Amino acid sequence: MTDQVLLDNDVSLKVACYLLVEQMLSITTVNGFPPAMLGVGKYVVRSKIERGDKIVDREAALAAFELLAANIMWLEPTEKEVAFAANLETAAMRNGLELDGGESQLLAILIQRACMLLITGDKRAIAALSVVAADIAGGKLYCMEQLMTRLVQVFTPETVRPRVCAEPSVDRAITASFGCSQPSAEVDDILAGLTSYIAHLESSAPAMLLHTNGLPPGDIY
């Protein structure tokens, strides 16, 4: 098993928009292994930021993503991993579930290379995997709300909340959790909001999420 943490495009996009790249890198770099993404994600995320009409500060988000791109590993799936991913997608379709190629390939890499964790912002993918891959992926996934919880715990709400609230349309569930419609929010209320979304996801995809903090505190880059 390696200590590699895998990131999907959605997580990388939102962390860049929130200007929390340095903080995220700090807690997802484990024993010298920086987090990793699929190579195609470099172009997909960059394009989404450039065209993102709901992003308040696209220039800052793009600069943050370039920082992320320079500090992570870029992975390409092997033929075996592509075939593994295709089988997962087929199984999902047979069950009337949505599982896109990026998520299935990341899971294939997670399993085939015995990586530590996959952090994904795709709740539909987590639900699909709970049906077609629970035996191999259970307890190896982390959702966006779990990552934000860990960032608040390590770096405090005073660091995280203003950055989330500066981009209220990037993720409305997270915006609501941080109480961005209010002048201030207590840490307990923020964590309770995030926990509520995590619990809802777990109710539809039981035993898929890692139940511990899962990520080390680390030192900021």
Strand and helix layout:
Blueprint (H helix, E strand, L loop, with lengths): L4 E3 L1 H9 L3 H8 L7 E3 L2 H11 L6 H14 L1 E3 L3 H16 L6 H12 L4 E4 L2 H10 L1 H4 L3 E3 H12 L1 H9 L6 H6 L9 H18 L17
Helix pairs in contact: 1-3, 1-4, 3-4, 5-6, 9-10, 9-12
Q: Can you walk through the features of this model?
A:
By secondary structure, this protein is mainly α. The chain is 58% helix and 7% strand. It contains 12 helices and 5 strands. It has helices spanning 9-17, 21-28, 41-51, 58-71, 79-94, 101-112, 123-132, 134-137, 144-155, 157-165, 172-177, 187-204; strands at 5-7, 36-38, 73-75, 117-120, 141-143. Helix 1 (9-17) packs across helix 4, helix 5 crosses helix 6 (101-112) and helix 9 packs antiparallel against helix 12. It is globular. 45% of the residues are buried.
Distance between the termini: 25 Å
Whole-number mean pLDDT: 93
Which sheet architecture does the biggest sheet show?
3 strands, parallel
**Helicity, as a percent range:** 55-70%
Number of DSSP helical runs: 12
Number of strands: 5
Strand order of the largest sheet: 1-4-5
Strand content: 5-15%
- The ordered string of helix (H) and strand (E) elements is EHHEHHEHHEHHEHHHH
**SSE-based structural type:** mainly alpha
Categorize the overall geometry.
globular
Question: For the CA atoms, what is the radius of gyration?
Answer: 17 Å
Low-confidence stretches: none
